[in-house]
Amino acid sequence: MKRLAGALLAVAATVSLASCEKPPPRVTVFSGTTSQWVAPTCFSWEGDIDAQQCLTQAAERATQGQTKRLNVIPEKVVGISVDPSVAESGWYPTVGGQRLTQDTLNETYFRFSFPRVPASPQGYPLAIVSEGEQKGVWVVRLDVQPGS
To answer: Domain range holding 74?
Structure first.
């Protein structure tokens, strides 16, 4: 009887795991000693999203304070770490709608110095946009802090 119960539990566990959908990759953004682990605003394993529309919606959410926030100091490094699956598909970062790279990135890490800009009540949306077969947009709001 114990064997039968164990076998049924094993089958039930396998079926429940098989029905689970793979979660979308996350992105980590950091500045100084603070980091934010960010889930995608929109994502598709098959690439069937409108990345530009998603980017527009994500930027609006960021300026309205509906996304995670990260404090940044002008002229200090901001780092972005993406999942290897995102790097394989290709990705690029934008701040306030401006691309930070001309070329698509295939590395898992990118860093840049945040420009000297005035603080804004809406912050500056940092978006990570993946291209290729899997598409997604991750957004975090960057809030400018006084330099040290």
So the answer is: 23-144
